[in-house]
Amino acid sequence: xxxxxxxxxxxxxxxxxxxxxxxxxxxxxxxxxxxxxxxxxxxxxxxxxxxxxxxxxxxxxxxxxxxxxxxxxxxxxxxxxxxxxxxxxxxxxxxxxxxxxxxxxxxxxxxxxxxxxxxxxxxxxxxxxxxxxxxxxxxxxxxxxxxxxxxxxxxxxxxxxxxxxxxxxxxxxxxxxxxxxxxxxxxxxxxxxxxxxxxxxxxxxxxxxxxxxxxxxxxxxxxxxxxxxxxxxxxxxxxxxxxxxxxxxxxxxxxxxxxxxxxxxxxxxxxxxxxxxxxxxxxxxxxxxxxxxxxxxxxxxxxxxxxxxxxxxxxxxxxxxxxxxxxxxxxxxxxxxxxxxxxxxxxxxxxxxxxxxxxxxxxxxxxxxxxxxxxxxxxxxxxxxxxxxxxxxxxxxxxxxxxxxxxxxxxxxxxxxxxxxxxxxxxxxxxxxxxxxxxxxxxxxxxxxxxxxxxxxxxxxxxxxxxxxxxxxxxxxxxxxxxxxxxxxxxxxxxxxxxxxxxxxxxxxxxxxxxxxxxxxxxxxxxxxxxxxxxxxxxxxxxxxxxxxxxxxxxxxxxxxxxxxxxxx
Amino acid sequence: xxxxxxxxxxxxxxxxxxxxxxxxxxxxxxxxxxxxxxxxxxxxxxxxxxxxxxxxxxxxxxxxxxxxxxxxxxxxxxxxxxxxxxxxxxxxxxxxxxxx
Lengths: 569, 100
Hints:
The complex is a heterodimer of chains A (569) and B (100).
Chain A: E1 10-14, H1 18-30, E2 34-38, H2 41-51, E3 55-59, H3 67-78, E4 85-89, H4 94-102, E5 107-110, H5 115-164, E6 174-177, H6 182-185, E7 187-193, E8 199-206, H7 210-215, H8 217-229, H9 234-248, E9 255-263, E10 268-274, E11 279-282, E12 290-292, E13 312-315, E14 321-325, H10 341-351, H11 358-370, E15 379-383, E16 408-415, H12 416-421, H13 425-433, H14 442-461, H15 472-488, E17 493-503, E18 506-515, H16 522-527, H17 539-546, E19 549-553, E20 558-565
Parallel strand pairs in A: 1-2, 1-3, 3-4, 4-5
Antiparallel strand pairs in A: 6-15, 7-8, 8-9, 9-10, 10-13, 11-12, 11-14, 14-15, 16-17, 17-18, 18-20, 19-20
Helix pairs in contact in A: 2-3, 8-9, 10-11, 14-17
Chain B: E1 2-7, E2 13-22, H1 27-34, E3 42-53, H2 55-67, E4 75-78, H3 82-90, E5 98-99
Parallel strand pairs in B: 2-3, 3-4, 4-5
Antiparallel strand pairs in B: 1-2
């Protein structure tokens, strides 16, 4: 009968009748089981506590404690485990038999015993016992895994929060909503200052949920912070993020993302959207909002060669805001299966009166629509702010400053093929930052360098007319022409010369930026009153304001600026 | 939800037909539909009966594209309803697949 050792059970037999007990013991032993015997209920309970048999054969009527009470106590002691109890009974009344089961018995067998039936019942009960054991084991395993998982998530979240919050998400002009476990929904929100005082902001949404969705966030954040801090613009940062994700993620994983560069000084916002739902550029003066449509494939899908890093540029002035959201808002379904949709969202945006409540209003609308709130959506709203209101970004240097170079010059010439794709500014900024005396002005230096470089490129080499940027339509045209002309560019150059000379305890940096363009009437342009309400014309004013000396020569083709510093304490 | 596949008369094209929700639960069936395919030169995913498609379905389509040759793959997505079309448009999958 016994097919394997695992079927060998310890069976407790409780019967006050000695001959019955011996007969049953003999039968059960012959079937290959180990037998324990008790002559009353109390003894049976005691034996059960000490020896934990796997199955009990229990006489109903016994002195001291009857089988019913003993069965109840054994079942209580057994807890979650199934210890089958088969009642041995000469009772035949239905009511008495029912009592056996009510007391916790699992089956009964009538005296005198039929050996075949008894063996079959023991085997059947054992199958149930093993099943229950498996279920309990799996339940415990799941509980344990769940605890591990929660702990892992807690640790991963703590590490990631350190990274995510090292940026400038806490700036006063940013409002956002994110689930505390957004990381494990695959949502990612990052913001950081560039050296020029631009704010970069990324809202990302990885495919999938849980750990797989979270693993890509770390390298993406690293590239975002690293390149933003070094002064790279959106196109370079995007290309790098895409290449990195493409390299490390499996084919079916990618990241839908929108990236913003908010330039508060020039009052521009640059946008790239790959796979996120429409974001919106909102105006406080009643102008219709501008949708920021996804016109790109998400990050991590395309190879470096076919990736499109073209961005859209829009005017962004006082009262303007950008609103971005992850999916989960427009594709929320109501109770009747209908989608929330872009139109309902737009209605909320249009009827919003208090910008500070916009995110809450979207949540309320969503909760009304679904009949319950959602906590797995991400939204972010970033408002225009005066550049000075946020304070300058702080940069931390790790070297000691003993080896600062103080008397040197260097010249660079960037030609057409390079100008098309390469942004030399981060490299040049790193170079001059080797001079410690200049580090205090690195933000000013970067702004002046980028202004002079983009003037040389856009007005010099590409011959674009900034007068185009009079209105919103011309503004779009300007950036469209910029992209087209850059694409067709075959000739032209920009030369940048640096000269560092010591001066007493301090020193002086002179930067000359020369371009191959037609030049401009610098006296006339500089004499114009500063543009306050216009969409253009801030660049030269910034250069004059931030450098110690600046002048144009060579019919406006060469700009020369100076930065001086005092001795370091 | 169901995934079926059939071959065109000339044997050069594998047609994968997806009905119901196209999401992560379809993963095994969808992979199974093309994984052992070595002869097909072209692939068509028929979304006529597809009611919904989520981001993991987009990922599965990328897996198929990879299997079919990556940037040289000939994969077309046909018979998309408005909802499915919108999801494909947001992700700009028209740059990766022929959408008819």
